[in-house]
Amino acid sequence: MFLWGTATAAYQIEGAVAEDGRGPSVWDTFAHEPGRVRDGHTGDVACDHYHRWAEDVELMAAAGVNAYRFSVAWSRVLPAGRGAVNGRGLDFYDRLVDGLCAKGIAPALTLFHWDLPQALEDEGGWLNRDTSGYFAEYAGIVAERLADRVKLWITLNEPFVHMVYGYGLGTHAPGRTLFLEALPVAHHQLLGHGLAVQALRAAGAGQVLITNNCTPVWAASDSPEDTAAADAYDILHNRLFNDPILTGKYPDMSAFGIGEMPGVRPGDLETIAQPLDGLGINYYNPTRIAAPSTDLLPFDDAGVTGYPTTAFGWPVVPDGLRELLTGLRARYPGLPPIYITENGCSYDGLDDRFRIDYLAGHLDALRRAQDEGVDVRGYFAWSLLDNFEWAEGYHQRFGLVHVDFATQARTPKASYHWFRRMILKRMISEH
Ligand code: GBH
C-alpha cells in the first residue's frame, strides 16, 4: 500500500521543552541566543503538540492519511543524551503511536531531526566520534519500546543540512562556523546511521531508512568551468551522503582540496553501507551552480531564475523531482525503494491555491518518475501544521493546517481539503 502522509519534526511542533523530564537540546540553546532566530522566536511552545497531539491525530485521520512522519526528541528519552532513560519521555511517543495506530495511521519515526541533546554538544556534538555510538544506543532504546508498532524507521533527517547550516555556516544550531572543517560531521552522522541500523535491526524494527535532502544540480552554462563547479556541488550536497550509504565509498572530494575523508577508520564504510529497506528523499528545489568567483569554495550558487517562487523565495520546479529520482536510479543500480519524506512550500493564507498547485505539480512529477521505472512507495507533505521554521521562526508557514500561535487554534487550509480528496481518489483508483 502506497503511503500518503504528512510530516513534522519534534522541535518544530512539540513545545513543552521543560516538561516531564526533557533535557535541553542544541535548538533550545540556539533559539535563546539573541540574534540567532528571526524576531527571537523559539520552540518553547511551538504548536503545543505535546499537549494537543490527540487533536492533531484527529486532523490527520479526517484528512484520510495512512501514514505520519514525526521525529522523537532525543533529549526527552535521554535528557543527557546518554545514560539515564527518562520513561516519561518515551511514554509520550508511546501514546502518540497508539493514537495513530488506533486511527489506522502508520507511524514513520525519525530518530534525529537536528535536536541533539545539549549535553552531547558540550562534548563536541557530531564533531565527536563518540556521538555516533550514543546515537545507536538511543536508537535501540526507542526501538525496544516502539518497534512492535512503528512501520518505518528513519535514522537521520538531512545530514547535509545539519552539517552545512549547523556546523559549517552557523545559521542553525549549534551555530558553528567551521566551513569545510565541518566535514567530520558528515562522517560521524553517517557512522551513527550505520550503527543505529544495527541497533534497530537487533531490536526488531521493521523498515529502516535514512532521509537525505537531494537537489538536481544544474550548471549555469555548458562551459567546462561551470560544469566542473556543478559536479563539485553535486558531490558535496548529494553524493557525500548517498554514495557511502548506497555504494560503500565516499566520492572523490579533491575539488575541495580533500584527499581522504577525515576520521574514517577501517570498517566504518561497511557499517555505513548496510542494506536499507528504503531511501527517504526530501525535495524542495533544484540548484543552479556556476564557476567560483572566490577561492573559498569550488562553486558559486548562481540561483535558479525564471520560475515562480514560494513565500520563502525558493523556486518552484516540479519536474526537478522527476529529474532527481530518475537521476538517482541511473546513478545507483541497487537503489532501494524511495519514500518522499518531505515536499511542500511556504505560503501565507488559508485560501492556498498556490500550495495546491505546488503539491499537485510535484505529484504529477512523481507519477512521471514512476512511469520511468522509479520505485516510489510513499509521499509525505511537509507539513501537517504551520510550525517553527528554524532560523525563520514562525514566519514561514508550511502547513496544510493553519495555526494561530496566539490561541493554538488549528484551521484546515484549502490545501488540506484538496489533499484529502486527492488521497481518496488515488486510493480508489489504485485498488
Ligand atoms: C527541510 O529542510 C527540513 O527537514 C524541515 O525541518 C524544514 O522545516 C523544511 O525543510 C522547510 O524548510 O536557497 O532557494 O536554493 C529543507 C532544506 C535547505 C531546502 C535550503 C531548500 C534552499 C532553497 N532546505 N534549500 S534555495
Description:
The protein has helices spanning 10-13, 26-31, 49-63, 74-77, 87-102, 118-121, 130-146, 159-169, 183-202, 224-247, 268-272, 319-331, 353-371, 414-429, and strands at 3-7, 67-71, 106-112, 152-157, 207-213, 217-219, 278-282, 287-290, 300-301, 338-342, 376-382, 401-404, 409-412. Strand 10, helix 13 (353-371) and strand 11 (376-382) form a beta-alpha-beta unit. It is globular and about 55 Å long. It contains 14 helices and 13 strands. The relative contact order is 0.13. The N and C termini lie close together (9 Å). Helix 3 packs parallel to helix 5 (87-102), helix 8 runs antiparallel to helix 9 (183-202) and helix 12 (319-331) packs parallel to helix 13 (353-371). The strands form three sheets. It has an eight-stranded parallel barrel, surrounded by five helices. A three-stranded mixed sheet has the order 6-8-9, covered by helices on one side. A two-stranded antiparallel sheet has the order 12-13. The chain is an alpha/beta fold. The chain has a single domain (3-430), classed as TIM Barrel (Alpha-Beta Barrel), CATH 3.20.20.
